[in-house]
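Illustration 12: Ferritin-like domain-containing protein.
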Amino acid sequence: MTTARDIYITGLKNAHAMENQALAIMKPQLQRIESYPDVAERLSQHIAETEGQIERLDQLLDRAGTDRSGLKDTAMSIAGTMAALGHTIAPDEIVKNSFANYAFENFEIAAYKSLLALADEAGDEEAIALLETNLEEEIAMAEWLDENIEPLTLRFASLASMGADAKR
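Figure caption equivalent — predicted structure in token form:
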């Protein structure tokens, strides 16, 4: 029989892999940004937040007496790297990355909302604050992306119309 705790621990492992995937997506993007310093600054900040999220998930997994899933972490990191590479050939790479990042942030928000429900159901009240911190950081990043997609798109269009290398 599968218990709420079993499902919760699987969710923690999945979230750990998801955050490793997020790093594998964001780090190559950050290295390629040239014409959008505000995006680079916010992405750099969120990379640091994501590293903190992984540390919090590590704490929760350690407290639960279980290991991370090395296979999931590796597979999701590879998937993230491939996703990041996929947009490098697009002439509007920065815009495509913003779309993908916004979608991924909302995926993470849903994952943390689910984990919070599972932590409550499994009786892991101590996890709530850590998971809420992760959720708040994801919401803040999604909101920033939402607020900046139009200005970013217009900056891309302006640079492109002037003949500048606007893609990144």
